[in-house]
Structures are given as structure tokens and as C-alpha cells.
Amino acid sequence: MARYDCDLFVIGAGSGGVRAARIAGGHGARVMVAEDDRVGGTCVIRGCIPKKLFVYASRFAPEFADAAAYGWTLGETRFDWPTLLANKDREIERLSGIYRRLLANAGVELIEARARLLDRHLLEVGGRRISAERILIATGGRPVYPPVPGAELGVTSNEAFHFDRLPGRIVIVGGGYIALEFAGIFNGLGVDTTVVYRGPQVLRGFDDDVRQAVADGLLKHGVKLLTRLNLKALARAEPGVAATLTDGRVLRADRLMFATGRAPNTADLGLAALGVALTPTGAVKVDEWSQSSVPGIYAIGDVTDRINLTPVATMEGHALADTLYGGRARLADHANVPHAVFSQPEVAAVGLTEAEARARFPHVDIYRTSFRPLKHTLTGRPEQTMMKLVVDATSDRVVGAHMVGDHAAEIMQGVAIAVKLGATKAQFDATVGIHPSAAEEFVTLRTKVPAPLAKAAE
Predict the structure, then answer these.
(1) Looking at residue 376, which CATH number applies to its domain?
(2) What's 108's domain CATH number?
(3) Is residue 203 domain-shared with residue 268, that is, in the same domain?
(4) Nearest to 436 by CA among 351, 366, 377
(5) Does residue 1 lie within any of the structural domains?
């Protein structure tokens, strides 16, 4: 008779938890998963997928306008917000159903209830007690509200996917990727959009040239960008809200959206009582094998606050399942993880920023270009694409690649393979470009940024 009810109990049926569960199940482990919300997690339900669908919707207006330059005559166009929401919801339900089938096909038992740890091998799940040899925390994160008066009058990205009507004016507080993605979405759908960010420049942590190019692009697209300012208070002002900023000015809008950070979902899981070490922000501390401070209790994904990206969570979950049940111990590799921001203009990067490279290597070469995409030589739209390579001059290895412009994410995925494999600048140069394309610029960059103009490490 089995000592435990299951070999692995997973709390959270998001991308990371589902991947870990189904791979472990495929290896023959007895797996249970608890989820107290819809199956699919942040990415499928209220993150990557619906947000990207909204981005697609927001890009049609300029495409309609640009068509005239290519000889097309279009009739009257009209956008219907309820239609977008209904179609988005239908797609989310489809994807959630796929996740359910993946679990079922792997022999995983799904329990739709909240789980809480009683000890390192025992959980309370929906009124029943279940024992497990190992427990995996994959509960993700959530958006947080800042501690300002009237904050409850604002919304987060969670609510933005379900507005009953498209606002005429919106203020977005924050300067990270979520803030900028929603700024592009609402601006593209015709909403008067203002971004308020407390820092000197948006996208903290990204390469400085990327940050400047994105800020310039936002302004060109009509987004109002207020930096070095923060929200002081929020008050009701029918039919919307009045936002008082730290410089005293008041912004009136139909909605105010907070994109000021996210927090790990570790509350009321029973972790602290078991001695599971948490960071000051509530993230589960884990070692390189994703094990917590308590043997047999593991954590992956955003709840660990390592690299908060869906593909990273799935990588961690897959590696853990292979290690525990597949007879193949392997670590999740967090080096040179490519990432994108589906802002407008779009951003993608892999590897080190210029500042990071200069802090790490004695000699760094920078190659950078900025140009108007071929498409807009006819439309006249003031779009700019920026591309940049960061090279360790001693080894000639490309240690960072950055792009701002159309299709940045699609292009960077291929470049990321080269950077991951340690390709040199000479090997980039030896690669024949695909002409005419924007992507070819990554293999035709020949002129270094002059050393006196290259930025020093901050």
C-alpha cells in the first residue's frame, strides 16, 4: 500500500504548475493539482494571451490609415469593444480547456479547490486531507495597489481585461512592461492615454538606448508620458476619477490603472508555519534545484521571483519533473533568457545591457543602428527601428542584443539562439542577411559606436 496519496502535489494550475504536473505524470508519478481559480494561470487567463490579443486589436487603426499609401481605399471603420471582449473570453476558455486535457491525458487528478499545507507531507484541500511525498508551490503572483489615499478607486491589469466599456481617458501609473503594453493598447483603440512614472525613464532595467527609443515612440504615437512624478491621491470625480500628482497637478480620467508591481501569491498557504523561508516581498526562497528551505517542498515560477516570465516557469517545472521522476537530473538555465515587451513600439532583448557589459568586461564594443522601416517610406509615418549589439571585445562574443520596432519579438527569438550558443561578432558578420528585411540589420552592423560616445556603466 502506498505511503502517500500521491507522489507530487502541485498547488497552482498555471503554466509552470501544469507543465511540472503533466511531465511528472508522463514519467509515471502519481500527481494531483489544486486550483481555486480557472485553469491556465496568469498567462492564459489574465496575462500574456489576452494582452497580446488586445495588442493585435489596437494595431488595426494605423494599418487602415497606412493602406492608402499602398493604393487601398477603405470604407468606414468602427471598433466594438464588447466584440473584442467576447472573442477574447472564448479563446481563453478554449486554452483553459486544452490545459485541462493535458492534465487528464497525463493521468493527473485536478482538484478545483484551495490548498493549504498542514505539514511537509500533508495538505488540506477543499475540506479533505491529502498526503504527498513532495509538494510544489506554483501559485504565481498578483498585481498590487500602492499605499496612496483612494487607491481602491483604481484598477489593475486584472480588471482592465473586463471593463464594461472602453474609457475615453485613462491614466496608467507605472513605467514597466505592463504599464507600457496597456498604454499602447488603449492609445491604439482611441483612448486618451497618460502614463505617470516616478522614475526618470520608463523600462527600468532595460538598456538605456532601448528605454529612450521606447519613450520617443510612445510620444510619437500620442501617449502622454509624465516622468519623475507619482500619484499622491486618488478621488472620485464623476463619471470617473481625479488623480492628484506629487507636483500638485490633477489629472481627470474615466479610469486609473495601477501597474506598479506584482507580489508572490504565498499568503495563507501555511508556508511560514512550516519554516519555509520567504523573501521580504513574500517570494519562496529556493535553491538552484527549485527546492525551498524545507526538504520536499519546491517552488517554481513567479512565486519565487526569479525571472517572472511564463516560459521560464514552464522551463523550471519541466526541469524539476525530469529531475524528480524522469531519471535525468537537470537544472533550469536562467542565463541569456530572451524577453519582449509588446509595447508600441515593441521591444525585445537577450543578454546583457550595455551598462551591465561594461561593468563585467574590460573592453566592450557597441554596434547600433536606427532607421525608418521600408514599409513607412511610403506611409510617411515617423516610425523608427533601433537595433543594438553588445560585444565583449576581448572574446568577440556577442553578449547582448536589443531591438525596438515592429516584429522585435519574432526577430529576437532567432538572435537569442546565437547569443545562447556564444556566437561571435565575426560569426554574425559572416551570416548572409535576408533582404529586404529589418532582421538583416543584425548581421550587417559594421561600424562601432565611437568610444567617446559609448556610455559608461551607471
Answers:
(1) 3.30.390.30
(2) 3.50.50.60
(3) no
(4) 377
(5) no
Q: 369 and 311: one domain?
A: no
Three-state SS string over the chain comes to CCCCCEEEEEECCCHHHHHHHHHHHHCCCCEEEECCCCCCHHHHHHCHHHHHHHHHHHCHHHHHHHHHHHCCCCCCCCCCHHHHHHHHHHHHHHHHHHHHHHHHHCCCEEECCCEEEEECCEEEECCEEEEEEEEEECCCEEECCCCCCCHHHCECHHHHCCCCCCCCEEEEECCCHHHHHHHHHHHHCCCEEEEEECCCCCCCCCCHHHHHHHHHHHHHCCCEEEECCCEEEEEEECCEEEEEECCCCEEEECEEEECCCEEECCCCCCCHHHCCCECCCCCECCCCCCECCCCCEEECHHHHCCCCCHHHHHHHHHHHHHHHHCCCCCCCCCCCCCEEECCCCCEEEEECCHHHHHHHCCCEEEEEEEECCCCHHHHCCCCCEEEEEEEECCCCEEEEEEEECCCHHHHHHHHHHHHHCCCEHHHHHHCCCCCCCCHHHHHCCCCECCHHHCCCCC
Based on the domain organization, do 138 and 268 belong to the same domain? yes
Specify the pTM: 0.95
Instruction: Please compute the mean of the pLDDT values over residues 65-73 and round it to a whole number.
Output: 96
Q: Do residues 138 and 274 share a domain?
A: yes
Q: Number of structural domains, the chain? A: 3
Residue 453 in this model has a pLDDT that exceeds 60: no
| pLDDT tens, position by position, 120-158 | 999 999 999 999 999 999 999 999 999 999 999 999 999
In this structure, are residues 49 and 310 in contact, taking their beta carbons and an 8 Å threshold?
no
Of 184, 181, 192, 213, residue with least CA distance to 59: 184
Catalytic positions, written as ranges: 435
Q: Taking all residues of the chain, what is their mean pLDDT, rounded to a whole number?
A: 96
Instruction: With cut-offs at 50, 70 and 90, classify the pLDDT of residue 451.
Output: confident
Q: What is the pLDDT of residues 2-24, one digit of tens each?
A: 899 999 999 999 999 999 999 99
For 347-395, the pLDDT digits (tens) are 999 999 999 999 999 999 999 999 999 999 999 999 999 999 999 999 9
Is residue 256 located within the same domain as residue 280? no
Residues 93 and 229 in one domain: no
Asked if the structure places residue 458 within a domain, the reply is no
Could you list the residue range(s) of the whole structural domain that residue 305 is in? 6-142+263-325
CB count within 10 Å of CB 203 equals 25
Same domain, 279 and 361: no
> What pLDDT, on the 0 to 100 scale, is given for residue 271?
97
